[in-house]
Amino acid sequence: MIVRVEGIVIRSIDYGEGNKILTVFSKEAGKISMMARGAKKVKSRHAAIAQLFTYGEFICYKSGSMGTLNNGDIWNAYNRLKDDIHKTAYAAYLMELTDRMLGENERNAPLFEQLKASLDAIDEDKDPQIVTNIYELKMLSIAGYMPVFGECVSCGSKEGTMTVSISLGGTVCARCRHTDPGSIAVSETALKLLRLFLHMDIRRLGKTEVKETTKKQLKQIIRQFLDAHVEIKWKSRSFLDQMDKYGI
Fold it and tell me: Which of UniProt's keywords are assigned here (predicted)?
């Protein structure tokens, strides 16, 4: 069966002497795997389309779980993004999030649009951490762990100072803080952004200027939610941490 999809290469690994196995997140069919024969060879017609982040049309022959790439058309290779180590690192993390949290053939056209919008936003010099934080929350929602930031998860109150409880799944008011004494204090600005990010369409994201202290809080809270509910050791996130540690 010939399959024609609009997709993004979220994983590309070498296979054998000259081939690559691609994982493509497609708008029409979700995550699909395909063999790109000869793609490791510089002069191969599949060499360019088999690169990570490539957005385009993929035509493959599929008879089982693994398809074979027949042809394709590159619509955006994100070459400018690839020339920047910070942008590349964040984009690689988005690819890993998508690859490891979605099942094979799990269709999700809205998420596909958000992933493409995330690549576009990073490519257009929008803050890569903010883009990533919004996408992380979308992945948490898909996994069934959408945090509650609009009210107290214990009593439903929307008044007063709130802290964030990872174990309870969202904010708790001062009256209910005893239910999780280890809940995290967070600034009002960070909390407003978390509420906004939950339902943000990345395609509408403009230029943002967020203080570093606020960004650290956002990163801490979202990361703790991911680590608590999604038991995956992220390879690409380790590289981001190394860049932060050494100020690269």
Answer: DNA damage, DNA recombination, DNA repair
Summarised one tens digit per residue, pLDDT across range 32-71 is: 999 999 999 988 999 999 999 999 999 999 888 899 999 9
Q: Tokens for 140?
A: 């948490």
Q: Please state the pTM of the whole predicted model.
A: 0.95
Return the bridge partners of 15, or none. Answer: 19
Domains, the chain, with CATH or none:
1-77 (2.40.50.140), 82-248 (1.20.1440.120)
d(CA 224, CA 164): 11
Backbone torsions φ then ψ of 166, nearest 5 degrees: -70, -45
* Rounded distance between C-alpha atoms, residue 56 and residue 6, angstroms: 6
**DSSP letters of 168-218?**
TTEEEEGGGGGG-TTPEE--HHHHHHHHHHHT--GGG-------HHHHHHH
- Here the tokens at position 39 are 């793609």
